[in-house]
Amino acid sequence: MSRIPLSEVMTKFPVSVVTEAPLTEVQEIFEEYNIHHLPVLSEDKQIIGIISKSDMDQLTWGVSLFKNHKREEYNEALMHTRRAKDVMTPNVYTLDVDDSIEDAYSVFRAEHFRAIPVLENGELVGIVTPIDLVKPFIAD
């Protein structure tokens, strides 16, 4: 089997947010782009975390549990005041653009991640999921 680089299967230049993005913005991005993982970048564009749609779904479901006459107002205020940095998974594992799909598979298998940001010279240039790894083997 040839060594297929991640650059051939990854989603290139994924949408991302900065740490101070309000959760309302994060939710809008998930809905608008129909994505499941959102890299979180520092002000100097370094990857420092990731938020999954499942994380956001759990949070919004939990927020909706507040049962009082001002529930919607309270929930909306909470989503505006909390930031990406408050809910992201920090210290995210990354791979390099020249790493292979075999390298990514090993990480997915060992760590049970569902998405891995891909870097080139320390900058975010892609994101790869387990589904991406099978693309070269499936005929369109």
Explain how this protein is built.
The protein has 140 residues and is α/β, with parallel strands linked by helices. The chain has a single domain, classed as CBS-domain (Roll), CATH 3.10.580.10. It is 38% helix and 21% strand. The chain has a four-stranded mixed beta sheet with strand order 1-8-7-6. It has a four-stranded mixed beta sheet with strand order 2-3-4-5. Helix 5 (101-111) links the parallel strand 6 (95-96) and strand 7 (116-120). The longest helix is centred in the first third of the chain and has 11 residues, at 23-33. The chain is elongated.
Brief write-up:
The chain is α/β, with parallel strands linked by helices.
Order of helices and strands: EEHEEHHHEEHEEH
CATH class: Alpha Beta
What would CATH call the homologous superfamily?
CBS-domain
Give, in spatial order, the strands making up the sheet with the most strands: 1-8-7-6
Mean pLDDT: 88
Looking at this protein, list some descriptive labels:
38% helix, alpha/beta, CBS-domain, 4-stranded mixed sheet, 140 residues
What's the arrangement of secondary structure elements?
Elements: E1 11-12, E2 17-18, H1 23-33, E3 37-41, E4 47-52, H2 53-63, H3 71-81, H4 84-87, E5 89-90, E6 95-96, H5 101-111, E7 116-120, E8 123-128, H6 130-134
Parallel strand pairs: 2-3, 6-7
Antiparallel strand pairs: 1-8, 3-4, 4-5, 7-8
